[in-house]
Amino acid sequence: MQQIIKNGELVVESWHLIPKDGSLDGMPNSDDMIVPLHLWLESSHALKARDGGLGVWLDADELIEEIADDLEHFQVIALNFPAFTDGRHYSTARLLRERYGYKGEIRAIGDVLRDQLFAMARCGFDAFAVRADRDPQAALEGLKDFTVTYQAAVDEPLPLYRRRA
Asked: Can you give the CATH number for the domain in which 133 is found?
């Protein structure tokens, strides 16, 4: 069983990530599924009628605005990092939290490495599926890399100079 980091702890993954070329054929009705954006756009009525949990995942070139009106249907929004050097979804996570007020889980998937976790958490991510060839326990320590931050972010809306008494 794959482990992910969720809310600062290692947990056993319980959601099924449907691949980009996946379909609804044979999809169990009661399992928790994270579907690719195109599948949501094509089959949202059928997916809403399912009994299991529903999530959606976006590739780096897909915009959150495409599902902004549907956010209440998703318990999980997974943002795919095709390469660790592609940081477009850092902005997407901030938009989800700050502009759209999304309170559900925002999960980083794809090429996710330990060194990114602290910055991702500051942007609003609360779950991380680290790359399969990496140790999630070691990656968990990445959330503790720094004890003080200067800049404002999702996790601390005031910059350091405004936090001082």
From this structure: 3.20.20.70
